[in-house]
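# nightly structure sweep
# worker-07 picked up a monomer target from the shared queue
# config: single-sequence mode, recycle default, output format = structure tokens
# input follows
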Amino acid sequence: MSQLSVNHLLGIKYLNEADIQLIFETADHFKEVINRPIKKVPSLRDITIANLFFENSTRTKLSFELAEKRLSADVINFSAAQSSVKKGETLIDTVNNILSMKVDMVVMRHPNPGAGIFLSRHIDASIVNAGDGAHEHPTQALLDTYSIREKLGDVSGKNVVIVGDILHSRVALSNIFALKLQGANVKVCGPMTLIPKYIETLGVEVETDLKKALKWCDVANMLRVQNERMDISYFPSTREYTRQFGVNKKMLDTLDKEIVIMHPGPINRGVEITSDVADSKQAIILNQVENGVAIRMAVIYLLASKIKN
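# output follows
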């Protein structure tokens, strides 16, 4: 049986192309399962998973928890807001206390980049990075590229533009790694204040004119404006940002082709995209959410199979 080349999912940059294809093929199977009347399989009946969320999250946490329960794993949830972390406990002490309860796998979101990597060097459980600061969000990139594959048949050779706050976005970085690994052409578009200086070393081009970017691309992945991560002003106003980098239906109708619109959520309607774009048939935003469960089931299943072996 094929296996992942890694024991943890810490970031897309630690995977190879065969890993991604294996995750996609496994997700194809689980997508079929979750569309059956009985959506549950007994695959992980003897596995216990702890969801450790040191940052607020709604959709990612729910998606992981649903994926784990569909695989019949035992699940415990941890939220930093109600934990001993508030009393000064360290990350390793917190996690070791949880692992003492015989936990096999940890799904962790943390505000500090590299938190998952740090933890993987100090504990025995398998780690899944559910987002670490502005570093990586690997399962989001996997579900995004899986959704492109589902919609367009393949990722290789497709032109994909990522629009918005590239500087603070773990989604952007993981997407760039995943898209390049699968042979896509990638551009980023946004205010130059929100484009990292190193971005071209990742093999992507920069385009500051949104209309040119939309004419070039097959897929536009619109990122959320992350006001909570901005401590200085990166653009004059939200209205100015929307005028230059927001997508509306009129703009899409001027193109001589139909492009695919994606958004990792949550959407600031009227800022990154208008409601008529978010709700149009060109948008695959809800497909991304649905595919998130299948991709997370695949990742957890494949990592758990390495624990069993």
